[in-house]
Amino acid sequence: MALEIFHYQRHHNVVFAKWLSVNGNPEPKIWTDIPFIPIDFFKDYRVASFEGPEAIVFESSGTGHSGISKHFLQDPEFYICNFRKCFELQYGQASQFAWMCLLPGYLERKNSSLVFMADDFVKYGLRGSDFYLYDFPKLIRQIETNEQNEIPGILLGVTFALQELAKVYKGPPLRYTTIMETGGMKGRGPELTRAELHKQWCTRFGVSQIHSEYGMTELMSQAYSQGNGRYVCPPWMKIMIRDISDPGNWLAAGKTGIICVVDLANIQSCSFIATQDLGKIHEDGSFEVLGRHDQSDARGCNLLVSEN
């Protein structure tokens, strides 16, 4: 299916076609030979595999060095079906939880794909589902209500906001509430590793594991971690690790390099993306995110510009 999508996108996606021409117009025999476009292309170009107007444009926060990413979609309903299924595969129906969303920063800007997803979960979630922004007292009261009534809840929060909540939370250990962080600590105080943060939060909230969501503006799909920072992808999403110094070399399990994502749900844009995240995969197919490598794709962008 990856090869079928590759041939479809090379004929319908102008940016991808130009990128392939820079790379010698390859004819991959297997999907692992497909070139991955640098994720920064979503900042500089309209990466779309359809003609005509888009129905919605998701935008990133713009914390990077070269502006905001834009993801153009012709069919938002496909995104809704996809993110519901990604969650369902690991947790069950999203409607079976009370969603408490702590997403400052994302809520304060337009066109966030994360807020779009969270809004759907809140809309169909159990009683108490809501966005809480900076209202920690109201959020803590809702958490305590859910705990007292044994209502399964998910506290979906950006990292820096969960860190602030952890400082003021003095309630009982959480038995029915899952804490799920989505990343987002850059420029918000001392940079701690995910493992250090999760250890602090486990102590503060009285839980054994912190869950995580791995998603981004440029992807339609999400991977989830139910603990220990190890993410699991849906069947139509796959992670590969590229050598930092040799883009043509794929690394074996346990080796650290650049995370490259095949997301077959990205049919409306491009399914083959080289991120700026550092990570490693494990033998069981799960993966870890270990940091950033911000300059990894600068050369690729310059090559495409030179072709225009």
In short:
By secondary structure, the protein is α/β, with parallel strands linked by helices. The chain has helices at 2-12, 14-22, 41-44, 76-91, 113-124, 136-148, 159-168, 194-205, 298-307; strands spanning 37-38, 56-59, 70-73, 98-102, 130-131, 153-157, 177-181, 211-214, 223-225, 231-232, 237-242, 257-263, 272-281, 287-292. It has 2 domains: 2-53 and 235-307, Luciferase, Domain 3 (Luciferase, domain 3), CATH 2.30.38; 78-214, Rossmann fold, CATH 3.40.50.
Word description of this protein:
The chain is an alpha/beta fold and 308 residues long. It has two domains: 2-53 and 235-307, Luciferase, domain 3 (Roll), CATH 2.30.38.10; 78-214, Rossmann fold, CATH 3.40.50. Helix content is 31%, strand content 21%. The chain has helices at 2-12, 14-22, 41-44, 76-91, 113-124, 136-148, 159-168, 194-205, 298-307; strands at residues 37-38, 56-59, 70-73, 98-102, 130-131, 153-157, 177-181, 211-214, 223-225, 231-232, 237-242, 257-263, 272-281, 287-292. The strands form three sheets. Strands 5-4-6-7-8-9-10 form a seven-stranded mixed β-sheet, sandwiched between helices. It starts with a helix and ends with a helix. Residues 296-308 have low confidence and may be disordered.
CATH architecture of the largest domain, by name, is 3-Layer(aba) Sandwich
Task: Report the C-alpha radius of gyration, rounded.
Answer: 20 Å
Distance between the termini: 30 Å
Helix and strand sequence: HHEHEEHEHEHEHEHEEEEEEEH
Tell me about the biggest sheet? 7 strands, mixed
Helix fraction bin: 25-40%
Instruction: Enter the CATH topology name of the largest domain.
Output: Rossmann fold
Provide mean pLDDT, rounded.
Answer: 89
Strand order of the largest sheet: 5-4-6-7-8-9-10
Strand content: 15-25%
- Report the structural category: alpha/beta
**Uncertain stretches:** 296-308
- The number of helices is 9
Number of DSSP-assigned strands: 14
| Top CATH class of the largest domain | Alpha Beta
